[in-house]
Structure formats: structure tokens, C-alpha cells
Amino acid sequence: MIGDVFTWLTDWSHWTDTRFDTGIITQLLAHIRFCAMALAIAMVIALPLGLFIGHTNRGRWLVGAANALRALPTVGVLVLLTVIISPQFQGRTDTGFLIPTVIVLVLLAVPPILANTFAGVQNVDPGVRDAASGMGMTGPQVLFRVELPISLPLIFSGVRSAALQLIATATVASYLPLGGLGRFIYDGLAQQDYPQMIGGGVLVAALALLTDLVLSTVQRYVVSRGITGRYSTKQVGAPDPRLAVVTEAEGARA
Amino acid sequence: MIALADGASSSPLHFVEYFLDHRSEDLGLLWSHTWLSVVPVIVGLLIALPLGWVARRHRWTYPPIMSITGVLYTIPSIALFVLVPPLLGLDTLDPLQVPIALTVYSVALLVRVVADGLASVPEETTQAATAMGFRPLERFFKVELPIAVPVIAAGLRVAVVSNVSIVAVAGTIGLSNLGQLFTQGFQLSTPDAYYPPIVLGIVLCVLLAVVLDSAVVLLNRVLTPWRRAVRT
Amino acid sequence: MIRFDAVTKRYPDGTVAVDELDLEAASGRITVLVGPSGCGKTTSLRMVNRMIEPTSGTIWLDDQDTATLPTHELRRKIGYVIQHAGLFPHRTIVDNVATVPFLLGTDKKQARRTAMELLERVGLPEHFAKRYPAQLSGGQQQRVGVARALAADPPVMLMDEPFSAVDPVVREQLQDEFLRLQQELGKTIVFVTHDIDEAIKLGDQVAVLRVGGRLAQLATPAELLSRPVDAFVAAFVGRDRGYRALGFADAGTLSTRDEPTVVLGAPIPTGTDGDSWLLAVDGAGAPQGWLDLGADFRGHDTVTDELLYRGGTLATQGSTLRAALDACLSSPSGRGVVIDEGGALIGTTTSREILDLIEAHEPERQT
């Protein structure tokens, strides 16, 4: 079976589009498109909100409310929104399916980014914050010159956690008649073409690992060495995206 | 009048009637969903406890254990579902594939949580316990583990709640659980939207997540009476 | 000059942290606020740079009402040092120090150059500049904290228990360097501590506050030791007040007697004439310790380090009565060793003579 999967993946004809089938490259780009759109929208919503709530300590309930969204079954919400929205878009475009998919993905990505941004700002050593305003920094200066750079590791771990969940869940978009790498999984299942189905799984896993690698590399260069501790031989290391989920859970209790 | 009646039956608010009409079938889905959400977390915790303990006790094992489980946690659920059978030599739609995949997830998440929880035990406490003559295993079960409960419980809540959602994903590749209500609803929605099974599935999933989450919170409270004593 | 004029801080729940405080911190001097926890000392300090807003009353900075300035402008004029330093973990040491100049829009290069000079001034080697706070010990971080507060050369500094989080040895070192630095800079400093010994050591004047934020006594350290106004201050200032007060009494020039000595490495002298203690000095004439001539020297021909009794303290000529008396009391021979600024032996004195000086001194004694 593993050999069959390898054969399916290494067959070049599966990578390019043909008259009957959409190739891996096209589906990969579609997959990345959903995820990137959703991640961008989620960040535009969650980052400023998290910074604001963390800095002012007002509206903490929003973080808890966002965390409660996690109890929603993603597939269920996707189907529900599709049933509501897609009839409004008749015709040849896939907008009717794209909109619910992106909404579901945004709903999924907001909680980890919001909770971690909030927790990051909240966790800044009160002494550091005190020193910053005591030296005459204005509110925005404290936020952007001190709190934000110090919370970057946690913010990154929230974004990484969100990105992983997006890549995993965008697969479900193929449950609707949409593209993406999930297409191979659902089509393979329907056609009992298991090498194709498992090959699709391998591709999704590979995309997730690669994305996390890229984001962790960006993180290395963006976060100050004074915080990561990469100034000495003693490697403190970047926070694990799993930590995001636990800090979120702490946030939910608050 | 007829049109109105039709509209009412497909209204989102009629999920209760839908449930009553298909009671035995829906209860079966709920039951298997519950089973799939809970058992992998318990098995995962049982595996993660010794692993987390090892990662704490022998510091050199910490980085490799965390990297390997970190990679496992990165793999998307649906990919893991389809990858488990070929890797373990099972049939492609073996009933064990989903529980195994979910167990792998739970282990991957909980190893870190257990290790961090044990790290949250103050050094003085473990040293005092050792000085009083606790043997390592005794110390683990009677001192370190109880103190680590709040951190582990926080991880368990995440594991259980996300499992409820992931199990529904497994429903889309044909497994019998609440996810099937979404498939049914989707299929019944052509040409016109038919909401009851979809809404019912969402409601049951959320209820299940809330109940399981509360159970973990309750368990945490029961196991850590000293924290309650401080709060009141 | 910082002046508190009937300053009160009352919280919404009714607790009064500071109650009608009147206090003047003189320019160029160190004013220490000291008291038990809950006495409002930190609140008082933080009201100066308006990290906490007073409920009523006025705080004057020279002849300016602090309430009339925008807070961030006020704060940039006031150095601020806190416990644990509160350094920015994401910035290098030099950039931490240059924080306020950066805020004021000083040219980056110039600000960093000033920062480097300040680091040297607080006793940190140049190669620390590119490090991050996490790489420094607590004491080193605190030095950076002081340098950072000095960076914009503010006339006024507020220091909130800056040395209380480091170990006693480092604390003493930091205190000594702080006093030396203040001698050069002459800032107007308000310093908060809960440690009465630190207050007495550092303060030009000490304000003792009692719980509820009322000023109990404002006095020089010597006066505080000799004339506590009431039982609370007396208890807070603590034991051995009489003895500690001697630490503020100049002993003047001590009359000394010549002391016979033996140089390290010389043969052990034999024969005692009544007194068995002989002072050993090194080649430069600096006292090293006492040799007990009555002891058993088997296996030794010359005076070596390990034969010496080193328990005695040394009094420098011109030091305080406390140091002089301590030198006598701690000396096994009963004779206190007096040295000059360079550390060389001048002679010895006795506790009887010091006690006579104390009797004659007396100006602070209550009548």
C-alpha cells in the first residue's frame, strides 16, 4: 500500500491539470488560497483586539467568548452556512461555497490568535510595564515598543496554531464541491482509490509541516534574541504551538 | 397553508421534532460520538503520563520526545485518519483507525501538558518529599501528580473539546457519529435547504463538548480541594 | 526640591494609603522614605511621577505643580528605578539605558554613546553593552536600571527598593557605589526602602512613615537613632540604637600609642614580658593579625599567615566612634588597631580612651 501511495505521488500526470482531472499543483494553490485568506482576515480581527484587551484589560469576556467558539463542530457550521449561503450565488462561480468555507476557517483561527495575543500582553512582567510608563512612555508607546515585542513569542505560537488548524480544516472544504487538497481524500474515498486518498493525506501533512517550519523560521528572525534566549549556547527554543492551546485554556478560565 | 407547513418542517427550529422522529438512530450516533471523544483522551493520558514523567526525570529525553510529538500534532486530523491504516497495516476503513488517530493526537498534546504540569511542582516540594523518604514512584503518585492536576486538567479540556469537533470530521469520511447528521442534512438540502439534522448535529456536538468540558472541570475541583480552600 | 503639600491618597474602597503628607526632599540630597509594609511609602514615591494620582494635595517639583504637566513629559524629567530593575528583555543593555533619550528624540548614535559612558560609570564593562538583560545577574541588572534612570540626566530620581532583591554582599556593594555616584552627581533623590539600616546608611534625611500613611518622624539618621520621637519610631529603628548612633559621630584624630610589630616571614620572637599578643604586619606596614606568643609553635620557625588571629577590625584615622570602639572590642589584645588612609599602621588605642571620647562627645544625647 505504501508503495502504491508513493507511485501515485510520484506520477507527474497527477501533478498537472488534465482535461478530466485537476492536478495536485492547482489543488495545492487552492488550499493555500483558502488558508491564507482566512488567516489574514483572522489576524486583522484578532491581533488588534487581543492587543487592545490585553493592554487596557477591558473586554476580557470577548476572549472567553471566542474560546467558547471552539466547542462548535466545524463541519456542522460549514454545512449550515453552505446551505444558507450557497443558494444566493447561482451560476458557475464557486463563491457560494467559498464564502462559508472562509467564514468557518476565520471562526476557527480567531480564538487561538486572540487568546494568545491577549495572554502575551497580559503576561508581560508588571515591573517592565511599570518601568516603561514610569520613564515617560505614552500608552501606545508602552504597547508597541514594549508589550508587543515581548508578547511576540506567544502571538506567533497562536498564529502557528491557527495556521495548522486552518490547513487541517480546509481539507473539509472539499466535502463541499470546492478544490483544495481534501479533493483527493474525498474523491479517493468515493472511488475507493486508496492510494489517491492516502496520497492526499500525505500532501496535507506535508503542507502543514512545511508551513510550521516557515512560520517558525520567520519567528526566529522577528523575535528579539533577548527573549528567545538564542544569545548563548543554551538553547531555550521557540514556544511549541501546542503551548498555544494550553494558554488558551487558561484564558478561557479567566 | 401547505407551503407554510413545509416551511415549518424544514425550519432550523424544528430539530427537536427531527430528533424525536429519529430518536434511536440519533442516540446511537450520539453514543458513538461520545465514546470516540472520551476513550482516546483517557488512553492518551495513560500513555502520556509515563512519557511526560520520563521527559521530566531524564532531561535529555525532553527535546526528542517534544519534537516527535510536536510533529504528530502538526499533522491534520483527516490526514492522520487516512494515514493510520497503511502505517499500522490495518484495513482502509478499519473501525479502529479513528480512535487510534485520536489517541495519537491526545498523546501528542498531553505529553507536553504532563511534563509542564510536573514542572509546575515547586522544586522545594519534591525535595522535601524525597527527604521525607518517598520513593520515586510513591513521590510521583502521592506528591507530584496531585499538584500537577490543574495544569493537566487544562490540557484535558482542550483535548476533549477539540476531539468532539474532530470526530465530526471523521463522520464526513463515512464513520457513524454525529458528523453523519451533517452529511444527511447536506444531502437533503438539494434543491431546498433542510435545516433540522444540521442544527441538531451542531446542538448535540456543542452540548457534548460542554458536558465533557464541565466533567473535566468538576474532576479537577474534586481532585484539588486545597485550591478551593484558598479561593473562598 | 520635591515638596509634598498635604498630599492624601484615598482609594475608592476607603483605604487611606497616604494621609495629609507634608514633606520636603531637599535638592541634591537623598531623602529616604522608610516604614513597615502598608505605610504608603511606595505610594508616596509613585505619586511624585504620577504613576499614582494623589486624591488631594499638591506635589511640587521645584516651583512647578506636578499636576499641571502631561504625565509622560513629567516622567521623562524624573529618573525612575524599581525593584528587579524592570529592564526590557527584548532590548540590549545599551538600548535599555538609552530608552529615555530615544523617547526624547535624541540622535541614536549620540544616545548610545551617552549610554556607554553611563554603563562605565555604574561599573559595568563595555562588552556588556550588546548583551540582553537575561544574561545579567540581579546585581548587574540593577546597575543597568540605575544607568537607565540617569540617561537623560534628570535632576530628580525616584528609587523604589532598588537594592532589596539582591543578596546582602552585592547590596552593600551597590549601596557604596550608589553613594559614590551621588557624590559626583548630586541628584535630588527620593529613595524607598523597608530596611532601616539601608535608610540610615544612605539617607541625608530619613522619613519614617507609620501604617495608614502618616509621617512619624523626619530627621537625619543620627538624630533618628538618638532621638526617636515615639515608641513606634524607637521600635522601628530597632536595637543597639546607642551603639549605631556612634556610627554618625566623628571620632576626630585618635591619639594612638606605638605598637611593637613583627613582619610576616620573620623568625618568631621568644620571651614575653607580661603581654602575650604581638601585632603582625606585612612588608608595607599594613596590619595582618595578632600573634599569640603563649601558643605552641611546634613545626614553625617564622611568622606565617596561618598562625595569626584575624578577628580584629581596623579603624581608619578620622573614622567614626563606632568603628574605633569596634576595633578595640574585637581585638584579642584589647588594643584597637588604627591605620591611615593607605592602610598602614599608625598605632593602637584602647576602649577606655574611646569611651572617654564618647563621654565627651554627647551632643546628641537626650537631656
Structural description of this entry:
- The complex is a heterotrimer of chains A (254), B (232) and C (367).
- Chain A is an all-alpha fold.
- Chain A has a single domain, classed as Orthogonal Bundle (MetI-like fold).
- Chain A is 74% helix and 0% strand.
- Chain A contains 11 helices and no strands.
- In chain A, helix 1 packs across helix 9, helix 3 packs across helix 5 and helix 7 packs antiparallel against helix 9.
- Chain A is elongated.
- The relative contact order of chain A is 0.15.
- Chain B is an all-alpha fold.
- Chain B has one domain: MetI-like fold (Orthogonal Bundle).
- Helix content of chain B is 81%, strand content 0%.
- In chain B, helix 3 crosses helix 6, helix 6 packs antiparallel against helix 8 and helix 8 packs antiparallel against helix 10.
- The relative contact order of chain B is 0.14.
- The N terminus of chain B is likely disordered.
- With 367 residues, chain C is of the alpha/beta class.
- Chain C folds into 2 domains: 237 residues, P-loop containing nucleotide triphosphate hydrolases (Rossmann fold, 3-Layer(aba) Sandwich), CATH 3.40.50.300; 101 residues, CBS-domain, CATH 3.10.580.10.
- In chain C, strand 14, helix 12 and strand 15 form a beta-alpha-beta unit.
- In chain C, helix 5 packs across helix 6 and helix 12 packs antiparallel against helix 13.
- The longest helix of chain C is centred in the middle third of the chain and has 18 residues.
- The relative contact order of chain C is 0.11.
- The model of chain C has no long low-confidence stretch (mean pLDDT 88).
- Classes of the chains: A mainly alpha (254), B mainly alpha (232), C alpha/beta (367).
- Chains in contact: A-B, A-C.
Could you give a short description of this structure?
The complex is a heterotrimer of chains A (254), B (232) and C (367). By secondary structure, chain A is mainly alpha-helical. Chain A is built from eleven helices and no strands.
Domains of chain B (count): 1
The N- to C-terminal Cα distance of chain A equals: 49 Å
CATH architecture of chain A: Orthogonal Bundle
CATH-derived architecture of chain B? Orthogonal Bundle
The most extensive interface, with participating residues per chain, is: A-B, 53 and 57 residues
Number of DSSP strand runs of chain A = 0
The CATH fourth-level homologous superfamily of chain A: MetI-like
Shape assignment of chain A: elongated
Provide the domain count of chain A: 1
Fourth CATH level, the homologous superfamily of chain B: MetI-like
Helical residue percent of chain B? over 70%
**How large is the radius of gyration of chain B?**
22 Å
CATH fold field value of chain B: MetI-like fold
Radius of gyration of chain A: 21 Å
Separation, N- and C-terminal Cα atoms of chain B: 59 Å
The amount of helix of chain A comes to: over 70%
Number of helices of chain A: 11
Structural class of the secondary structure composition of chain B?
A: mainly alpha
